[in-house]
Specification:
The complex is a heterotetramer, with 2 copies of chain A (301 residues) and 2 copies of chain B (574 residues).
Chain A: H1 19-33, E1 40-44, E2 59-62, H2 68-78, E3 83-89, H3 90-96, H4 98-107, E4 112-117, E5 120-121, E6 127-128, H5 152-159, E7 163-168, H6 172-184, E8 189-194, H7 206-212, E9 213-215, E10 224-225, H8 228-242, E11 249-257, H9 262-269, E12 284-285, E13 288-289, H10 294-299
Parallel strand pairs in A: 1-2, 1-3, 3-4, 4-8, 7-8, 9-11, 10-11
Antiparallel strand pairs in A: 5-6, 7-11, 12-13
Helix pairs in contact in A: 1-6, 3-4, 4-5
Chain B: E1 3-11, H1 16-29, E2 33-39, E3 48-56, E4 67-72, H2 75-81, E5 85-93, E6 102-104, H3 107-118, H4 122-125, H5 129-140, H6 145-155, H7 160-176, E7 194-196, H8 198-209, E8 213-216, H9 223-236, E9 239-242, H10 246-258, E10 263-267, H11 269-285, E11 290-295, H12 312-317, E12 326-328, H13 333-350, E13 354-359, H14 360-364, E14 367-369, E15 384-385, E16 406-407, E17 417-419, H15 434-454, H16 457-460, E18 461-464, E19 469-474, H17 478-487, E20 491-496, E21 498-500, H18 504-508, E22 516-520, H19 526-535, E23 541-545, H20 553-562, E24 568-571
Parallel strand pairs in B: 1-4, 4-5, 5-6, 8-9, 8-10, 10-11, 11-13, 12-13, 15-16, 19-20, 19-22, 22-23, 23-24
Antiparallel strand pairs in B: 1-3, 2-3, 7-14, 12-21, 18-20
Classes of the chains: A alpha/beta (301), B alpha/beta (574).
Bound molecules: thiamine diphosphate (2 copies), iron/sulfur cluster (2 copies) and magnesium ion (2 copies).
One magnesium ion is lined by residues 47, 89-91, 118, 120-122, 129 of chain A.
Chain lengths: 301, 574, 301, 574
């Protein structure tokens, strides 16, 4: 049995912040899956959200603003035996880190990406984040937001994410189940979590979401694609669903499609990658290099 | 000593590199010392470019301004370079001779003869003009044609038909080209040497060190190294990852390092600039990661295929806030190999980022060096715990020597929290306690003193010669300087190798020389500033070159002479 | 009449490179539109493609690798009277510059973005670019490409580009017409140009494209959306079309939808933005600042 | 001189800033000099934080370690700060008194009385505890309650109901709270001063300078400035653009500058690190762009809401390759205003990037300064051509003074090619001519000498005092140093303002002082290195502080005394 998944660090989020729900759902999911603590790596960027690695009793990487996903992919590539979870704010993920968001879709590394989507830059005091809807001006903004929001679901579908879902920080059950499903998914899984920021975002609040979010699966959407043909066809429909944002906002899984993951592809280029764990596969014996470079030197003579 | 200087000039993409590489290899095989370098345009095809190959029976490490043989593959090459060719030299060309140096070669006739023999179209053979020129040089220098043909066969090992045609061209050239003078070289005696550049030397050094993760974003002149690694990644178990940008490259290398792999990235100025934020993170998080910094002419995109050492002060002070790093600079391909190997030991022992300074001229000049000696290589991974179980673990625990034991995911109860925020011993960031801050800064910055205490002198500097005057330099000018002080024995030479932390105590002791000059390839003579700041040495002259081309032997000798009267000497040879 | 649109700088692309076609089509388009040279700003990143600013006789910004679009947007924002064209390699646009690619969709600045899409990093000697298909290994690669390609059309649709098209460097007429249509479009227009690199990409060649590219418009696709409803609905269909890549590859306009541009939105926040050109609107009179800061100082007393 | 030191402590988000801001404003209005500063956690709510306000009838520019009145809004504040409170001081609290300093306030009773009067629920008023504490302080210091109420009414100008309730709380507090001692201050005489911080001063300076384009990515402590600008953008025609990252921010500012707008960006360490590639581009392309660099405690994310001056050497040498830049450092809010204004003149006159060094303590400490004098402000846009037509135009033309005329799009026949590659006069990049390279490097780097020749001394340094010993410093320690040399008149003070290019001739002349010490807020004493490198000054002691908190007057005086015997003095007061 794994140890408790909570560290005993005091949490410094604002009371009522949606982040608490995500922390709870995540630790519940890990508990349910019974993954040993030392086999889990959790990364965060910089932001309120990205403090979560300090609260979860696993190998925790508190990285740089926007770089959570970049580092998470490298961790999984370095050691495919780990369960890797990347956490990020919407600013991290869809502002400063967008190049990694898109590039990750090309790799399909088997990890879970949780976006704490609150429409604002919480830790820097409430500026517009890339997901803040057009024309809104939550109280912390000096001027209304004149940019259109990024649509994380649509963007993930376009980038090739093989599992794409939306969930909600105040629906712990849905969120926990979605995280479990995302972790179990073999490939890159995105969970875009609607996460009210009670301090700065007085628009996208609990009240706002409670009345709007509906469960895609309950309304019959089957996101699973069993082959490429079906995947392509479902993509179009998933995109249409991702455009719904108004009186009704869909949550649940938009697409789920299993194909080769990055470690499987890497093993095409690296003959020992599948059998050996590169971390514990030694590079020296009592200091003597294991690699014999003589053939390389001979080639140059 | 007798040396021979060949220049191969023509439009980029016309195969001039093939000619010079083949000639270099042939001469190396014949026991000569070979030194070659390339001057390319930042373009793919068409622009005028040239390669130089210098050959001698004695050790040489720089190029000479004198050209003995010019292969001019177009008329532009003649216009641009004929004045550089020695009065007794040779100009190999298709065009009408202008003076006695010209050797007019019947390219088309040779190709036609071979085409007829092998039943080919002339057009199929037109790419083989280089081979003809090469064979003419072979004849001038009296090389047995078989020596050339052997190397050609190896080059085209996978395309034997091409090899056969090229070798037929060699035969035909040898048989019909008339040469009325020749150059005779003493017999070569240096057998068994490798012909290598620093990109290869570094790559091989990394493999010996057990590199497991290399991330990179393509950039000249750094990516040759990564491409070399891709070629052997399967055999040596190296993950080579081409990333979406340099920010991802350094972040992935850092994460892989913190997951337990020996990790590195290679880049040049523009890419390094993008890595600076994460460099500071590596310092703060005590991550062992190695950055190979191939300098090229800046600022900005600058002259991407040209040489410079303009990034010294930048590499030393890059990154916001203060954190420890190691900056070392090899001066030749052998040092590049050994330093690449050692950099991983340093990174892991001291748990910090290490920057290895290289440059375009090292990456793109091939010369002969003895095979690397692997017998003394020793891997030291420091306080790394890769397996098993620990207790009461704290990633940033205060210890006597300032280095904390380091776990990786998988180690039971070894859970860490790595944080770029200021943190406590356990990695958590919430107290912001002012006293802890002071202790943590002392812990990290204290490594610098430890490093200066630990490192052997030859990692800090090397000393050559016995003149009363002193040249101080770093990195690639080494070859030209060593060659120059043979001619100007009144100079000794101090090669600075550890650029940061600065070995002040050792270097101060050199402040007794009559006259001290620096030699560097940048505008302001940055090493001069560093010597002043750290060792109180006020050099009497700074010899600099920043026109994008490496230093030639003759101009350096001249520059040394001028430095007696001038505070700044600008070398300008192109 | 504008001056010639070509500078007299010698072009250094490889003979036969697809880039020539783009240069031709672009200068023909400018000629046809008769925009005065001094009213055009053209940006490039770094790459073979991005040398194009040197060849066109307009205000030319040869920027940094990946930053062509970021700078182009600022130029248009600074001076909305200019016709702004951003050129970029696929590495520029979809590798190192992806965060700008996505963010630009949120602004809808009225400019034209031309991607020189050759599947490789030309100027650095042929490494895989983000659009190189999975499993391919053009001759310059050491190892086969194990990443999936970015789909620029899909990504642009997801990012909110209001005009999205594909064209082909060897079909000058189609390309010129597409560029004209893109320039005329009020809003952010992407033209993803299939551009064979004859030196490094021996897979996506002229022969490859000649037999595969078909004209969407000729097959009846009407990309124009006249309102938001229609736009959303056409997005789904356009996505499906963007997934076609095989024996048949669609070219032409995928979507065209006019809505508020960024300068229109900016004038909500800046009352003088519409009437004054901020470049020529003076900041001083004989050295004396035009702005009176006294009210700001008074507020602080 | 008599000073009063108030500390307001409590959980972040509990309104402690409201209390200290209001008190500061009230006292400034009453003619006092006010100096306040904030110590916040990098969190939004809950963590313990505090503000200090120092008030005096004479000019003060730093905070004191002594606390006369502590407002403790929770019991943690009492535990943490009670020992700092003077023996005759006051501790305002709800809790049981521990000693004679404690003033127990009946918060709930006061609120209940007001609630009853206005027919409100007690819970609605619970946020007004701060107001009670403020009123208690008012009573202790004998401030007329109307002075407080006026400021409260202004603060809540848009919400008069809230103002009314708060003012009723003031009335009630004044009427029922019993104070048995009081503090009497001499009458204030300094009327008409502004209460301001450097973020505001810089923003207003930019507006005066005609800033038209500001791009930024949010970051503490820089973004307060951008938010201020957003508030007035419409009135003053400033485009303020929040970008996707700092790379976009600097690139957009550069492009806007090259399109003819006065352009700037503001950031802190992590953001500046990401801007380094484009900084080098600005140098190469001779783009006038200004970067406002708000330093905070590093490395990496460090302590984002804490103070440091750790980025000096980095700012000076950031960027690959060598290019000219100007780095200036204001030392107080007035200089921040004038330097912000002037930075645009410098950028446009010399066509290069200018970096203005600020820091967290300047951005977040409010103090009183006289209203800025705008009468002498003069805008100089250098060789800028905004309209009309030119002929034979070349963007990078060689000229006598090294500065080329600069067109913008729209100017007829003024078409330019801006390039970050090395270029010819016309901006084209294809020759890679080695001689042109030398000329272009000379052109760009030559600006540095010109700048040193042109700039007036007060832009280079300022000098204060007449002691035989010398303090050299830069930036924000200025206030504490000026206050300290009143107590230690044996010290003079040299404030270095132009950090790059370094005014070596001028500064060398100060090497005659008996003893020279530096005062800086970083670990290694970077200014000491710079003085050594550039002026040959070997300081006898480096006084440093790097625990994230600004320098207090008393510890600096102590530090100066210690510096007689120690090469490095670390200040540690928190
Ligand atoms: C390079 C860099 N730029 C800016 C910052 C400042 N910063 C800290 S948190 C943050 C944004 C946080 O927003 P988000 O990612 O949405 O997370 P949230 O706080 O809303 O959970 C920013 C801009 C930084 N740390 N690093
Ligand atoms: C920051 C940075 N990283 C890397 C490079 C090196 N570089 C020059 S061009 C190029 C790629 C060019 O590829 P692409 O954008 O597809 O343009 P193409 O040459 O194919 O037209 C790269 C990586 C650079 N100039 N700057
Ligand atoms: S500021 Fe917003 S996101 Fe941050 S902790 Fe508070 S409620 Fe949560
Ligand atoms: S390398 Fe390719 S893209 Fe570059 S100029 Fe040559 S053909 Fe064109
Ligand atoms: Mg957020
Ligand atoms: Mg390309």
């Amino acid at each position: 049995m794994p140890n408790s998944y909570r560290t005993n660090v005091e949490i410094d989020w604002c009371p009522g912040c949606g982040d608490f729900g995500i922390l709870n759902a995540l630790t519940l999911a890990l508990q349910e899956l019974k993954i040993p603590n030392e086999k889990v790596a959790l990364t965060g960027g910089i932001g309120c959200s990205s403090k979560i690695p300090h609260y979860v009793n696993v190998y925790a990487y508190h990285t740089l603003h926007g770089r959570s996903l970049a580092q998470a992919q490298a961790i999984k590539i370095a050691n495919p035996e780990l369960e890797v979870i990347a956490a990020a704010g919407d600013g991290d993920a869809l502002g400063i880190g967008t190049q990694h968001f898109v590039a990750a879709g090309r790799r399909n590394v088997d990890l879970t990406y949780l976006i704490f989507d609150n429409g604002v830059y919480g830790l820097t005091k409430g500026q517009a984040s890339p997901t803040l809807p057009y024309g809104e001006s939550p109280k912390s903004l000096q001027v209304e937001n004149i940019k259109d929001p990024v649509n994380p679901i649509f963007l993930a579908l376009a980038s090739g994410y093989t599992f794409v879902a939306r969930s909600y920080s105040y629906n712990i059950k849905h969120l926990k189940d979605t995280i479990i499903r995302a972790i179990k998914h073999k490939g890159l899984a995105l969970v875009d979590v609607m996460q009210p920021c009670v301090t700065y975002n007085n628009i996208n609040t609990k009240e706002y979401y409670d009345s709007r979010l509906y469960d895609l699966q309950k309304e019959g959407w089957d996101p699973v694609a069993k082959n490429e043909e079906e995947y392509k066809q479902k993509l179009g429909q998933a995109v249409i669903k991702s455009l719904e944002w108004g009186d009704r906002i869909p949550m649940g899984v938009f697409i789920e499609y299993e194909k080769e993951t990055y470690d499987e592809r890497l093993s095409k280029l690296l003959k020992n990658y599948k059998e050996k764990n590169f971390v514990t596969f030694p590079v020296h014996e009592n200091g003597k290099p294991v690699n014999d470079i003589t053939p390389l030197l001979e080639e140059l003579v | 000593m007798k040396d021979l200087n060949l220049m191969v000039a023509g439009p980029q993409g016309s195969g001039i590199n093939f000619t010079s590489d083949t000639f270099s290899k042939v001469m190396a095989r014949l026991g000569y010392y070979v030194f070659s370098n390339a001057e390319l345009f930042s373009t793919i095809k068409g622009e005028h470019s040239y390669f130089r190959v210098r050959v001698s029976d004695e050790l040489i490490r720089s190029y000479s301004e004198r050209v003995d043989i010019l292969i001019a593959l177009d008329s532009k090459s003649i216009i641009l370079h004929k004045d550089e060719v020695d009065g007794n030299g040779f100009i190999i060309t298709e065009e009408k001779p202008l003076d006695s140096r010209f050797v007019q070669v019947e390219y088309n006739k040779i190709l036609q003869n071979v085409a007829n023999k092998y039943n080919k179209n002339l057009s199929e053979l037109s790419v083989m003009k280089n081979t003809i020129a090469l064979a003419v040089v072979g004849k001038i220098v009296s090389i047995p044609k078989e020596a050339i043909q052997k190397v050609i066969s190896e080059n085209f090992a996978k395309r034997p038909n091409i090899a056969q045609l090229n070798n037929a061209v060699v035969d035909e050239t040898y048989s019909i080209t008339k040469i009325d003078r020749s150059i005779s070289l003493p017999k070569g005696k240096a057998f068994g040497n490798m012909l290598i550049n620093s990109a290869e030397a570094v790559a091989i050094g990394k493999i010996a060190a057990g590199l497991r993760f290399q991330s990179y974003y393509p950039i000249t002149p750094a990516s040759d190294e990564s491409q070399y690694l891709e070629g052997v990644m399967s055999k040596y178990n190296v993950i080579v990852e081409q990333t979406e940008d340099e920010i991802a490259a350094i972040n992935m290398a850092i994460a892989a390092a913190n997951t337990g792999l020996r990790s590195a990235t290679s880049t040049s100025g523009p890419g390094f600039s993008l890595m600076v934020e994460a460099l500071s993170y590596a310092g703060m998080t005590e991550t062992p990661v190695v950055i190979f910094y191939y300098q090229r002419a800046g600022p900005s995109t600058g002259m991407p295929t040209r040489h410079e050492q303009g990034d010294l002060k930048f590499a030393i002070s890059a990154g916001h806030g203060e954190f420890p790093r190691i900056v070392i600079a090899p001066g030749d391909h052998e040092e590049a190999f050994y330093d690449a190997f050692e950099s991983f030991n340093l990174a892991e022992k001291y748990q910090l980022p290490v920057i290895v300074m290289l440059d375009k001229s090292m990456a793109m000049s091939n010369y002969t060096v003895p095979k690397f000696d692997t017998s003394k290589l020793k891997i030291d991974r420091g306080k790394l715990i890769l397996e098993g179980e620990v207790s009461n673990y704290k990633r940033y625990a205060f210890t006597e020597d300032g280095i904390s034991p380091r776990t990786v995911p998988g180690v039971k109860n070894g859970m860490f929290t790595i944080a770029g925020d200021e943190h406590e011993e356990d990695g958590h960031i919430f107290s912001e306690d002012p006293d802890n801050r002071i202790k943590m800064m002392d812990k990290r910055m204290g490594k610098l003193k430890k490093i200066l205490g630990d490192l052997p002198n030859e990692m800090k500097y090397k000393f050559y010669g016995n003149g009363d005057n002193l040249i101080i330099s770093w990195g690639s000018p080494k070859g030209a300087i060593l060659d120059a002080i043979r001619e100007r024995p009144e100079y000794s030479y101090l090669q600075l190798r550890l650029l940061h932390p600065f070995p002040a105590d050792e270097i101060k002791s050199f402040n007794k020389y009559k006259r001290i000059v620096t030699v560097e390839q940048n505008y302001s003579g940055q090493l001069g500033d560093i010597l002043k700041e750290n060792a109180g040495i006020d050099v009497s002259s700074r010899i600099v070159k920043f026109n994008g081309r490496p230093i030639a032997l003759e101009e350096l000798i001249e520059g040394l002479d001028k430095s007696k009267n001038e505070r700044r000497v600008v070398l300008t040879y192109a």
